[in-house]
Amino acid sequence: MKHLLHYLLGAALLTVPTLVTATSAAATAPQAASPVTRVSGIALSDGNVWLATQGGIVSLNATSGKSELYALSDAETEGPSKAFGNEFLSICVNGNEIWAGSKDAGVVRISGGKMQYFTANGLRNLNGAIISDGKGGVVVGNAELHAYDGSAWTNVMLSEALPSSYAFVKALAYDSEGTLWYAGENVTGDLFGSYADGKVEPVKGIRDIEGMAIDAAGHKWLATHSGVIEYGDKVVQSLTKANSAIASDHISAIAIDAEGNIWFAAGATLYRYDGKAVSSTALPAEDNGFKVNAIAADGGVLWIGTTEGLYKFAEGKVEAVDYTSQLKAAGNTEIILPEAEAAETWIGSPEGLIFVDKAGASHLIVAGNDTVNTITKIAVGKSGTAWAAVSHSDTVLIRSNGTDTQAFTTAGCPIAREGVSDIALDSQERLLAATTGGLLRFDGSSWENLSGAGSPIEGQAVKKVIADKADNIWLTIAGKGLYKYDGKSWTLYDKSNSALPYNNVTDIVADEKGTIWLTTSAGDGTNAGGGLTSISGDTWTTYNTSNSAIPSDNISNIMPYNNSILFLISGKGHVSAFNGTDTWASYDADVTGCDNHSLLSVAGEQCNNPVWLASIQSRGVTVARNVSDEITAIKKVTTTDVDSADKAVYDLSGLRVLHPVKGQVYISGGKKFIAR
Fold first, then answer.
1. C-alpha distances in Å from residue 79, one per residue of 72, 87, 298, 322
2. Which residues, at least 6 apart from 278, have a Cβ–Cβ distance to it below 8 Å?
3. DSSP-derived secondary structure for 320-372
4. Choice among 5-19, 234-248, 319-333 with the minimum mean pLDDT
5. Is the dihedral of CA 474, 475, 480, 485 positive or negative?
6. Listed residue (272, 263, 271) closest to 295, CA to CA
7. Closest by Cα among 671, 676, 588, 500 to 78
8. Which range has the worst mean pLDDT, 118-127, 526-535, 562-571, 632-641?
9. What is the pLDDT of residue 367?
10. Mean pLDDT, to the nearest integer, of 156-170?
11. E strand spans, 415-501
């Protein structure tokens, strides 16, 4: 972008003429706090004021005072901490539509009284800014930019927003040339720049931006933690506490009215700058944490959204606007979600093995407790038959189709108590059992020892086992590298003859394309990890922090899901995803609901973000009412008549629902909604 000035702020800031005039304003504090009191964004449309609030989207008629709430759940009873998906941070008008960005449940469009949610890749969290592109589409800002043209989303990476950092776009604005400007906060540096013609051009030196407005001359006015900054083609000016008698340099919101006046807020004070002088108006704040989040100019009227509600400023007076006491749910609101599809799920836990059928009902197949029948691993074939590995019991394996169940005990099969480390099924649904005594295969009637005399793994403990699309068997032995068995011969891959980072392979999976994915560690007490390695034919590729955007080299668990690889970051509570080519995403404990050390495993069913998280303390994983929070294994039945999990609907306990009941609260795609 031409004329961009790259700089470091300092003594070069120009002083602005300062004349502060105090304007007295009599006003009362807004209504009592409720989940919709906190206003984070304001948009104006045809006499209506639209509010992005903590409890949903509010439509307020500026003349009659009538207000309606668009929300996915009952915010008044759920409360802000439980109204998952109801907190909105940004809002805009796009023709006859209203668009709003949520904190943790994607982006919503309201058109004709109907709400539709979008949760495309990257839209999940902190959608702090949204703007109409003037062509029928919108652009959303969070840690990157997301453009919607009416049919598809396009992601635009911001070079400043590193995958491992906290980056949060808080403002978007177009200049007169049609260039889009973005601004926000980034823990590792700056987050300010322009986007045009497919190219991002960052501007360096301006940090911690809360808001932005562009004047008729194309100058960008920025609300920052260092005062108000005016950024022009070659000029940077500032309004600060030192040069303008502003009470605080922490500016939280900014707007420009039709006459070119700059309006901004610091704490509980509203300021106006006309290019020569600054005047101020006190806002009636009752809370020490009071903050102005948004300012919108409508002719001679200002609408001010705060942590304590909505204010109206007109003719020099501030008035608190009551939009909650008569607030009603929008009567014609219809939540548009994909149709629920039937599916079956198997759940393992310390309480035993549970089967959730296509009607959403759960069945306890084998009961357990802390000392017997704890399920540690589940494998499900295309026929729907499930195998479960069992610990703390003389029963070591269970096979069930949901109706008929067979137990395999130490007396009836060649496996010792506590002997199963891992299980898998090949394309013929033969069971592969990795045990402390080697590798066994069961064809439904007889057992075969694949690690017998003459085998390179004879007598060794097998940790992990999988079968790829060609029925090659891949297995791991601690510290020994990776073994492949094609049915006739064995091949050992280690550091001496392959690109394996370390000989200690900790996990291994095969995706639908036949690619093998594995993780490794040094195994020498240094906690060094080898990142994520793929094997496709003869091509080995390792992704680590030195050559990719992977957030950590220490990975504890991996699985394929929806054409991506999901993996856990050891000891951090992070779930990450990689699409296999160029896109990385990471979800921390704030999203997963898990503490930093509680994640045990990850499995590919739709519930929360969008995976089942098996953990000690995880939201949304108690999938049967009599099961504890510690889920050890979950598997979806992958029969050909089951569609992708992103169309699933669950009740609040996590059980599958085929026919949602009107008025009840459900979960789909990681967000709550009320069936209409």
1. 12, 10, 32, 19
2. 18, 19, 20, 21, 239, 244, 245, 246, 271, 272
3. EE--STT-EE-TT-EEE-PPP----EEEEETTEEEEE-TTS-EEEEEE-BTTB
4. 5-19
5. negative
6. 263
7. 671
8. 632-641
9. 76
10. 75
11. 420-425, 431-435, 438-442, 447-449, 464-467, 473-476, 482-485, 490-493
Residue 382: count of CB within 10 angstroms of its CB: 12
Residue 37, token pair as written in the block: 């009191």
Q: Is the pLDDT of residue 108 over 60?
A: yes
Tell me which residue of 149, 80, 142 sits closest to 106, measured CA to CA: 142
| Whether 675 contacts 664, CB under 8 Å | yes
For 586-619, give the DSSP string.
EE-HHHH---TT-EEEEEEEEEETTEEEEESS-T
User: How many other CB atoms are found less than 10 A from the CB of residue 276?
Assistant: 9
Three-state DSSP string of 520-580: EECCCCCCCEEEEEEEECCEEEEECCCCCCCCCCCEEEEEEECCEEEEEECCCCEEEEECC
Residue 58 and residue 36: Cα distance in Å, rounded? 8
Asked if pLDDT for residue 441 goes beyond 60, the answer is yes
Flag the least confident range among 216-220, 314-318, 399-403, 502-506.
Answer: 399-403
Q: Give me the chain's average pLDDT, please.
A: 79
Q: What is the pLDDT of residue 513?
A: 84
Instruction: Tell me the mean pLDDT in the region 460-464.
Output: 95
Contact 239, 227 (CB under 8 A): yes
Find, among 287, 321, 257, 275, the residue nearest to 27 by Cα: 321
Compute the half-sphere exposure of residue 424: CA atoms within 13 Å on the CB side of its CA.
21
- CA 474 vs. chain centroid, Å, equals 32
CA angle 42, 43, 44 (to 5 degrees): 130
Exposure string over 562-601, b if 16+ CB within 10 A, otherwise e: eebbbbbbbebbbbbbbebeeebbbbbbebbbbeeebbbb
Closest C-alpha among 674, 587, 569, 611 to residue 125: 587
Return the structure tokens found at 363: 């069945």
Q: Report pLDDT for 70.
A: 85
Alpha helices in 151-271 (DSSP H): 241-244
In this structure, the strands spanning 236-239 and 14-15 are parallel
* Chain segment 566-592, per-residue pLDDT in tens: 787 776 666 777 888 877 876 655 445
Beta-sheet strand order (sheet of 555-561): 555-561, 564-569, 574-578, 584-587
What is the helix (H) or strand (E) element at residue 116, kind and residue range? strand 114-118
Which pLDDT does position 646 carry in this prediction?
A: 40
Q: For residue range 376-395, list pLDDT tens digits in order.
A: 888 988 888 899 998 888 88
Selection from 572, 431, 565 nearest residue 507 by Cα:
565
Characterize the bridge pairing of strands 278-282 and 20-23.
Answer: parallel
Residue that the structure tokens 């939540």 belong to: 335
Q: Return the residue matching tokens 């083609």.
A: 233
In sequence order, the 6+-apart residues with CB closer than 8 A to the CB of 644 are 562
